[in-house]
Automatic annotation (TrEMBL), chains A, B:
GO terms for molecular function: DNA binding. CDD domains: HTH_LacI (cd01392), PBP1_LacI_sugar_binding-like (cd06267). Pfam families: LacI, Peripla_BP_1. Gene3D superfamilies: 3.40.50.2300, lambda repressor-like DNA-binding domains. It comes from the Bacteria. InterPro entries: HTH_LacI, Lambda_DNA-bd_dom_sf, Peripla_BP/Lac1_sug-bd_dom, Peripla_BP_I. It comes from Oscillibacter valericigenes. This is LacI family DNA-binding transcriptional regulator. Keywords: DNA-binding, Repressor, Transcription, Transcription regulation. SUPFAM superfamilies: lambda repressor-like DNA-binding domains, Periplasmic binding protein-like I. Residues 3-57 form the HTH lacI-type domain.
Length: 338, 338
DNA sequence: CTGAAAGCGCTTACAG
DNA sequence: CTGAAAGCGCTTACAG
């Protein structure tokens, strides 16, 4: 049979209140009494029932994280880092995987907010803020991660998407590239939109012609790079910017198989999954943009716990910066000079 | 204020029992009554409190998964597949990440089994069965995944480790390799042990000399491959078997950087993370062993739900088989023949 | 310094 | 066909 707090109280010869208080250190208990309680707990092998406790206090000590694609190393690493922060603060993390599907996101938000978690981290796949907002119970602690909405109703932690892409275009233009193609993730995502608009602005600023066909979109999941690349190659690009981490390795492989040499036949800049050792191989052949995933996760954990403790805290927006790692051979001769 | 079942009952003019039964479809309710209830629910925006419900019923509809390393794509993919199965059956998944640390595993098992989840999936990093067993409350539904103990007390879903490694050695021996090195994960893990013992047996069966220095162990996390490789290369191996998925890409990169050509200077066989597109690049240069991660996850989900429903169900052991993908150029001339 | 008791929001025998 | 009420295992004012 299940051992309850009353069993302990009975055996220790005290009230359940005293047992509860000694366990939780929530009011003074004399040392003798404490000892009796602990002895009884040990003898019975008592463990407080988390589900009763959270029902009673309304606190589950669980945070939910709605993730678009758990097999994407960017998110997997972020989850790891969020989990690390939370567990250090006595919280557990529940993951829900949407695979960039809005209905799945909807279902999961409903489920998790219905008494399962104390707060929610969301890397949303939605583009409609009203629809998203309607799912969140009033006052429920929410932090948007990596992807934001224009409406600033929720706290958010994300990465500056504009700067690295703008810089990429400038660097490529500086090398003499004129036809610069770009592949992004799902067009509806704020991250994709920011990146594409940085591209557009930089192209204009550098005086390079824009062309719709030079912009291609994938689905932010695996195996969408090749179709994009085919279209870009048709357009005879000098350079390609891959602004979606999942596409990076696919791109490298695909170009390799086509016999197109990086840094020679084509210039490449790519967002890269954090910590992915594969790219060190290509450090001398391409520029890489590395997102601060771990900081992102930690900041997200910090902010959601803050909101759980004080739901009325002011909205907070944090924008982190990616590292831009120029091709290690970029000091070589500019094309056309040789 | 929170809307409760009594608010609904009051507004609908029925008892809480009736509200509960119409929500859960758990006894006959007349259509008119149902309609009154649903109208009240809609009007008040009522959502049943999951935490009260699970406290009452003792069922949380949550499964816990203790994972050694969530950033390892093998486990990330498995999580995805478990989560898919569970959510299709109305369950949520909670992840705990141990980073191959026994203390963290202990803490997490204690936490999760104390009323947080209905059942537990564990890819354990422990080698001491007694210690593990002591953490599990009597009768608590547990399924071991990927890694097992000799004691057959719990159900398990894992992959046959013996066969692919045995075959690797035979294939390499058949190519004329004699000095075959192997790198494994943590020595304490059953998966590592099975692989190494398959190697030993195959080496003996093929009449190849064994040598302690040809066996190297990593830590089953990222960045442990290079040290192993250094030691193997010192021993002047003809071939290397990488029997830990995380090490695969590190190995390829490292050999590449050293100017050692796959299939020419050295033969390589490697376990490979599921679905990892990088390896298609090397399909003509190495043998790969691909584990059935998705099936593993699905089978694990199936078994844990079975045990949650009927905890007394007989112990079940499932062993899946990996795909062995021989190097696509292996039909070429055997070394020494040319 | 500690206890008696209410109550969190549900579900579910029991009763009619 | 439906209701009154007990009770799941805790925590926490209230009281002394």
């Amino acid at each position: 049979m299940k051992v309850t707090i009353s069993d302990v109280a009975k055996l220790a010869g005290v009230s359940t209140a005293t047992v509860s208080h000694t366990i939780n250190n929530t009011r003074y208990v004399s040392n003798e009494t404490k000892e009796k309680v602990y002895r009884a707990i040990a003898e019975l092998g008592y463990t407080p029932d988390a589900s009763a406790r959270s029902f009673r206090t309304g606190k589950k000590k669980i945070i939910g994280f709605i993730v678009p694609d758990i097999a994407n190393k960017f998110f997997a690493t972020m989850i790891e880092s969020v989990e690390k922060y939370l567990s250090a603060h006595g919280y557990q993390l529940i993951i829900a995987n949407t695979r960039e599907n809005m209905e799945r996101e909807e279902t999961n938000i409903r489920l998790l907010t219905a008494g399962l978690v104390d707060g929610l981290l969301v890397a949303s796949t939605m583009d409609d803020f009203q629809r998203f907002d309607a799912l969140i119970p009033a006052g429920f602690p929410v932090v948007l991660v990596d992807r934001v909405f224009e409406e600033k109703k929720y706290s958010s932690i994300c990465v500056s998407n504009f700067q690295p892409i703008y810089r990429s275009v400038c660097r490529l233009a500086g090398k003499g590239d004129r036809r610069i193609g770009i592949t992004g993730g799902l067009p509806r995502l704020s991250s994709t939109q920011e990146r594409i608009s940085a591209y557009r602005q930089a192209m204009a600023d550098c005086g390079l012609p824009e062309e719709e066909g030079l912009i291609q979109y994938g689905d932010s999941l695996e195996n969408s790079a090749c179709a994009c690349l085919d279209k870009l190659l048709e357009r005879r690009c000098d350079a390609i910017i891959v602004c979606q981490g999942m596409m990076a390795s696919e791109t490298i492989i695909y170009l390799h198989q086509k016999g197109i040499r990086l840094g020679k036949d084509i210039d490449l800049v790519s967002f890269v999954d954090y910590d992915s050792d594969v790219y060190t191989l290509y450090a001398d052949q391409m520029d890489t943009i590395i997102q601060p995933v771990e900081e992102l996760g930690e900041a997200a954990g910090e902010e959601i716990l803050k909101r759980v403790e004080s739901p009325e805290a002011p909205i907070f927006e944090k924008v982190l910066t990616s590292a831009y790692k120029p091709c290690s051979l970029s000091v070589g001769p500019v094309r056309g000079e040789a």
